[in-house]
Specification:
CATH class of the domain at 9-32 and 64-99 and 180-376: Alpha Beta
CATH topology of the domain at 9-32 and 64-99 and 180-376: L-amino peptidase D-ALA esterase/amidase
Number of helices: 7
Radius of gyration: 22 Å
Shape: globular
Number of strands: 15
Distance between the termini: 70 Å
Order of helices and strands: EEEEHEEHEHEEEEHEHEHEEH
Strand content: 15-25%
CATH architecture of the domain at 9-32 and 64-99 and 180-376: 4-Layer Sandwich
CATH superfamily of the domain at 9-32 and 64-99 and 180-376: L-amino peptidase D-ALA esterase/amidase
Largest sheet: 6 strands, mixed
Helix content: 25-40%
């Protein structure tokens, strides 16, 4: 395997909006947010339930602060289509608070990941279930059964611990890693992707970061920066074996340092759905588009002698730039998942092909050339040359 990282979407010349990304172009550009993965790849050939091949894992997002259980952050969410699951989200929407790590994995490992997360949190916070409330970890899932022995339930406690304990700020590994190891998008290999946007000073200088576990769509639907890349590539890949039923889903996690209420974060989450639509999703009947958002601006203590806790809140008329930034970052996060992933074989010889980046780069360059030619054609003529005396 080529050890060199594959280009990200913006390296291909894809038009990706007007706001600039943060330093890492990742959810970790939001101060305090950390991400870790545990990737499980074992075996090849025919499916032997319980033995493999295994193409799965766990991704962890730590929302900020030393201990999110003691210093909870404000959260919200939105479900565009509900053929999927994010355990713990009912409580999140009721209380408006995130108090556990956010974990992503395959559909049949939600219970195992939740159980391991409870064990880890009780070790860190022995008062859970005694002097403190019980917890419901936030665990999101997508179906990776076309490549993975999903019924074998290969995710164990150590994988959850690894994802949590290795979580760090800085660059985030993308593609076929962690929970995204066996995921597919628009019939190409995908998985984990991330992106961020930094608003200018005049708009508050807030940062928005998005991380996705992307697993939706058909090839013909794929659009990259508005370009119909899927339609162009579909004929070439017409005979490529692919999953016949669309197990498509996506989990998107949004982070920001803008001071938002739970209701505002739920509104922001809805705009992430527009970013998913930009890539081509129609939120199919069997698809789960589940979006979760949190803000690191206000940390709500679990215990306090005060009866009133005062929070900073951004006024609603100031939300529009954040909405736009979230749409841009969500679109780019999905495209980064596609760009980072490489060919992967799985159960019964099933193969998911990587997006052909050289062709995408050529299409983007051709489109940019046509745009520039059109711009020149519409440019008004300059002043007439000076007359010589």
């Amino acid at each position: 395997m080529d050890p060199r990282p594959r280009p990200r979407a913006r390296d291909l010349g894809i038009p990706l909006g007007r706001f600039r990304p943060g330093r890492w172009n990742a959810i970790t550009d939001v101060a305090g947010v950390r991400v870790g993965h545990s990737t499980i790849v074992r075996g090849s050939g025919p499916l032997k339930p319980g033995k493999g091949p295994v193409r799965t894992g766990v991704t962890c997002i730590l929302p900020g602060g030393a201990n999110v259980f003691d210093e909870r952050v404000v959260g919200g969410g939105f479900v565009l289509n509900g053929a999927g699951e994010m355990s713990g989200m009912t409580q999140l929407l009721e209380w408006g608070l995130v108090e556990t790590p956010i974990l992503l994995t395959n559909t049949l490992s939600v219970g195992a990941v939740s159980d391991a997360a409870v064990k880890w949190m009780v070790e860190q916070n022995p008062g859970i279930g005694l002097q403190h409330d019980v917890i419901i970890p936030l665990v999101g899932e997508c179906d990776d059964s076309w490549l993975n022995d999903v019924a074998g339930r290969h995710v164990q406690d150590q994988h959850v611990y690894e994802a949590i304990n290795t979580a760090s700020d800085g660059p985030v590994a993308e593609g076929s890693v962690g929970g995204g190891t066996g995921m597919i998008t628009c019939d190409f290999k995908a998985g984990i992707g991330t992106s961020s946007r930094k608003l200018p000073e005049s708009m508050g200088a807030y940062t928005v970061g998005v991380l996705v576990m992307s697993n939706f769509g058909l090839m013909r639907q794929l659009r990259m920066g508005g370009l119909p890349v899927g339609e162009i590539l579909a004929e070439r890949y017409a005979t490529l074996p692919r999953r016949q039923r669309n197990y498509g889903s996506i989990i998107a996690v949004l982070a920001t340092d803008a001071p938002l209420t739970s209701h505002q974060l739920s509104r922001v989450s809805r705009r992430a759905a527009l970013g998913i639509g930009r890539v081509g999703s129609s939120a199919m009947h069997g698809s789960g588009e589940i979006l979760l958002a949190f803000s690191t601006a206000n940390q709500v203590p679990r215990e306090s002698r005060k009866m009133v806790y005062r929070m900073k809140v951004l006024l609603d008329p100031r939300l529009d730039p954040l909405y736009e930034a979230v749409i841009e970052a969500t679109e780019e996060a999905i495209l980064n998942a596609l760009c980072a992933a490489r060919d992967m074989d799985g159960v019964n010889g099933n193969v998911s092909r990587a997006l052909p980046l050289a062709e995408v780069r050529e299409l983007a360059a051709r489109w940019q050339g046509e745009v520039e030619a059109g711009r020149r054609a519409r440019r008004p003529p300059g002043p007439p040359p000076a007359r010589k005396e």
